[in-house]
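Weekly sync, protein design subgroup
Attendees: M.S., D.O., the rotation student, P.L. (late)

Item 1: inverse folding check
M.S. brought a backbone from last month's batch and wanted to see whether the design step gives back something sensible before we order anything. D.O. pointed out we never logged the input encoding, so this time it goes straight into the notes. Structure tokens as presented (444 positions):
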């Protein structure tokens, strides 16, 4: 195969990884109703949506709501629309080419390029795991008074949780994730009811305003929200786990799979939109309107919720949602790490070895910072993890848009002209804004 030809077709044989081989057990009813087929395809979208509501998103949403009220709701909405398009392209790559994004890159690029892409992706997964470690440790500290350093160490236990869940099957994992998402959803629904946001200003916040671009402080947080929303490892993950469905590998079967998997993805990401929007709305209604505009991290928000809303349940539900968010993201980060290592390098490690390596990489800096700098240090580290993710995002988005826009690779499923244009625009916006975010982080 000529790896330097951008229009070359895939190899004829289907690629698969150990995850798909173990979990390709969800059968699609051949003559089932629309509802039965949709339920059979539901699940992968929920696992992907978890990455859009992980602890790393909380800080930007809280700061945005506290400082600028409901104004940045439009940024969350636009970011979510970007995510829906990109995750649909990821689904299309998995269904049509029967490859995950890592395998597709390995097919197409030179080995040196693939090695660089793999390194970047591993760094992003480690950064994501870092956010999960910190988020879970903060939640344990807030709910049970466990010191941050001890909470960081406790997060190693989830290695064994992952092993247990993987032994039960993919549907079991999807059910656990769905249950945790419901806990997060219910917690924030309760918080919104307590905070009593103003309906009209909230709806107006969904409409983009010029000041988002003209106000440097607002623009910085807006870019942070965008940069923390689309997770690069999710593009690798989704293109793989969508193949765990036993749909017919025919043209008609792939068309049906695209339709139902696309619905699953879009619905799940709208849940993620609600949760991200809810964090900002609660922050705006509780902190911005009371003059507490300096609230910028999770600890501040937790401590102020009870006195401002008049009930300790407000803080408890906030902490429970944070803990559920951290555990959920742990699951998907593990699966994504397994996929990229096998896809790029064809190295198959035992799940517990892979998980332990990734978690230890995340624990070491989190433990050092929590011991030396405490709460403020871990909050800064959480933000830094999102900057790392932003840096890696372009290296996942560009190949995905390129592959799904290639007639030679996708055949009749190639992106339509309008979708190509939308995908290129989204890619350009992400690249430019993330470069700006990186510049402002390094040279503020």
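Designed sequence read out in the meeting:
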């Amino acid at each position: 195969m000529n790896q330097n030809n951008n229009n070359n077709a895939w190899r004829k044989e289907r690629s698969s990884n150990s995850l798909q081989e173990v979990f390709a057990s969800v059968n699609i009813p051949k003559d089932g109703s629309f509802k039965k087929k949709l339920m059979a395809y539901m699940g992968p979208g929920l696992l992907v949506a978890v990455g859009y509501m992980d602890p790393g998103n909380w800080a930007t949403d809280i700061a945005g709501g506290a400082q600028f009220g409901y104004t940045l709701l439009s940024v969350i909405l636009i970011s979510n629309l970007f995510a829906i398009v990109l995750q649909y392209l990821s689904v299309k790559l998995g269904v049509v080419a029967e490859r995950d994004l890592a395998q597709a890159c390995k097919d197409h690029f030179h080995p040196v390029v693939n090695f660089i892409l793999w390194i970047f992706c591993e760094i992003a997964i480690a950064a994501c795991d870092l956010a999960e470690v910190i988020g879970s440790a903060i939640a344990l500290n807030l709910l049970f008074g466990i010191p941050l350093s001890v909470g960081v160490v406790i997060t190693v236990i989830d290695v064994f949780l992952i092993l247990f869940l993987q032994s039960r099957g993919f549907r079991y994992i999807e059910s656990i994730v769905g249950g945790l998402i419901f806990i997060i959803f219910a917690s924030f629904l309760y918080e919104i009811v307590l905070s009593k946001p103003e309906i009209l200003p909230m709806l107006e916040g969904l409409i983009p305003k010029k000041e988002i671009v003209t106000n440097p402080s607002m623009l910085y947080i807006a870019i942070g929200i965008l940069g923390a929303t689309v997770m690069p490892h999710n593009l690798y993950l989704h293109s793989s786990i969508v193949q765990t469905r036993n749909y017919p590998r025919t043209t008609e079967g792939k068309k049906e799979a695209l339709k139902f998997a696309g619905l699953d993805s879009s619905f799940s990401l709208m849940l993620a939109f609600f949760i991200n929007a809810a964090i900002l709305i609660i922050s705006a209604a509780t902190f911005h309107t009371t003059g507490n505009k300096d609230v910028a991290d999770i600890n501040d928000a937790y401590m102020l919720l009870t006195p401002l809303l008049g009930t300790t349940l407000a803080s408890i539900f906030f902490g429970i949602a944070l803990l559920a968010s951290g555990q959920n993201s742990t699951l998907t980060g593990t699966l994504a790490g397994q996929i990229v290592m096998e896809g790029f390098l064809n190295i198959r490690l035992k799940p517990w070895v892979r998980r332990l390596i990734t978690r230890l990489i995340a624990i070491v800096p989190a433990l050092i910072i929590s011991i030396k700098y405490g709460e403020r240090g871990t909050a800064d580290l959480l933000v830094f993890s999102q900057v790392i993710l932003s840096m890696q995002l372009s290296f996942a988005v560009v190949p995905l848009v390129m592959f799904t826009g290639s007639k030679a690779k996708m055949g009749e499923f190639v992106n339509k002209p309008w979708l190509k244009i939308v995908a290129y625009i989204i890619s350009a916006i992400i690249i430019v804004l993330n470069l700006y975010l990186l510049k402002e982080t390094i040279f503020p």
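Discussion: The chain is about 80% helix and 0% strand. Strands lie at 26-27, 245-246.
Action: P.L. to compare against the previous round before Friday.
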